[in-house]
């Protein structure tokens, strides 16, 4: 059996990933799964924070492919996502392994009985398909949905109808991949960035051009106007000028700092 040279580092991968999980994975899902495995198990960690930009860099996949791949891995219960932080934290889900080393769940053996089961009659009348109505109502929405809808309508007044089931579904799917905080920050950045105003003003306040597209949300999260800084950029600005941290204010529910307006006007005049 060939052996790796002593100086070569490696990550041990269990056989069941190849024997039992490989068949059900798409190429994109496999790349993402291996990266998550490397960043967690490979570094002896239970979970790790991984950004979309890291996933793009390490896998070579597009953001839309990564979005679909993550959704598939979560659906197959191979990966868990903790969205309580600003950057998603991923965990590889180790399947239950029996003594033989197989991760497959053996079917439970049920003894046959001579007693015939009693068939229960269904007393509820089934509503014919043609008479069924969509019962989605804004009164049934979760707190997270309401928070996102209200924030969107605060930034872009009266452009998102909470009684529109298709829009609600789009937001629910977005919340499967982003936190409320991330979506609100993406909405805010979208409203402040000149990209849409200069290039695509017709898409700026359209929910249908935002919520159904994870890659758009991820892009908007990274947008910043000229006067916006992340923490490290703000520190660099302070150390390279006559500014202090008191000249900046942090935007609510975000990791972004802006120059205070009064101080900014003084700097422009000078």
Description:
The chain has three domains: 15-92, Winged helix-like DNA-binding domain superfamily/Winged helix DNA-binding domain (Arc Repressor Mutant, subunit A, Orthogonal Bundle); 143-222, no CATH class; 231-267. The chain has eleven helices and six strands. The chain has helices at residues 15-21, 27-40, 52-59, 63-75, 143-155, 165-175, 180-192, 194-199, 214-221, 231-239, 261-269; strands spanning 48-49, 79-82, 89-92, 228-229, 248-250, 257-259. The strands form two sheets. It has a three-stranded antiparallel sheet with strand order 1-3-2. Strands 4-6-5 form a three-stranded antiparallel sheet. It is globular. Mean pLDDT is 76; it is low at 97-113, 117-121, 125-136 and 262-270.
- Rg to the nearest angstrom? 25 Å
Which assembly state applies to the chains in this document?
single chain
Largest sheet composition: 3 strands, antiparallel
* Domain module count: 3
Computed structural class = mainly alpha
Mean pLDDT: 76
| Total DSSP helices | 11
Helical coverage, percent range: 40-55%
Structural shape: globular
Pfam families: Phage_rep_O
Protein name: Replication protein
GO biological process, one term: DNA replication
What topology does this entry show?
Elements lengths: L14 H7 L5 H14 L7 E2 L2 H8 L3 H13 L3 E4 L6 E4 L50 H13 L9 H11 L4 H13 L1 H6 L14 H8 L6 E2 L1 H9 L8 E3 L6 E3 L1 H9 L1
Antiparallel strand pairs: 1-3, 2-3, 4-6, 5-6
Helix pairs in contact: 2-4, 5-6, 5-7, 7-9
Pfam family, one: Phage_rep_O
Organism: Fodinibius halophilus
GO biological process, one term: DNA replication
């Amino acid at each position: 059996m060939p052996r790796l040279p002593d100086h070569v580092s490696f990550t041990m991968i269990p056989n069941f990933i190849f024997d039992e999980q490989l068949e059900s994975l798409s190429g994109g899902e496999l790349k993402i799964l291996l990266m998550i495995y490397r960043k967690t198990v490979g570094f002896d960690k239970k979970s790790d924070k991984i950004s979309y930009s890291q996933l793009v860099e390490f896998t070579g996949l597009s953001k839309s492919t990564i979005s679909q791949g993550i959704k598939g891995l979560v659906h197959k219960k191979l990966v868990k996502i903790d969205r309580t932080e600003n950057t998603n934290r991923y965990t590889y889900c180790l399947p239950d392994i029996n003594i033989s080393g197989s991760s497959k769940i053996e079917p439970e053996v049920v003894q046959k009985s001579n007693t015939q089961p009693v068939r229960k009659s269904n007393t509820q009348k089934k509503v014919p398909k043609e008479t069924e109505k969509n019962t989605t109502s804004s009164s049934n929405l979760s707190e997270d949905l309401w928070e996102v809808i209200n924030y969107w309508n605060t930034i872009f007044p009266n452009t998102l109808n909470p009684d529109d089931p298709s829009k609600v579904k789009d937001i629910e799917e977005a919340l499967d991949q982003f936190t409320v905080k991330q979506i609100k920050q993406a909405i805010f950045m979208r409203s402040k960035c000149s990209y849409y105003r200069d290039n695509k003003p017709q898409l700026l306040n359209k929910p249908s051009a935002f919520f159904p597209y994870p890659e758009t949300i991820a892009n908007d999260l990274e947008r910043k106007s000229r006067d916006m800084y992340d923490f490290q950029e703000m520190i660099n600005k302070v150390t390279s000028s006559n500014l202090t941290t008191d000249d900046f204010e942090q935007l609510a529910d975000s990791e972004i700092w802006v120059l205070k307006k009064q101080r900014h006007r003084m700097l422009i005049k000078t």
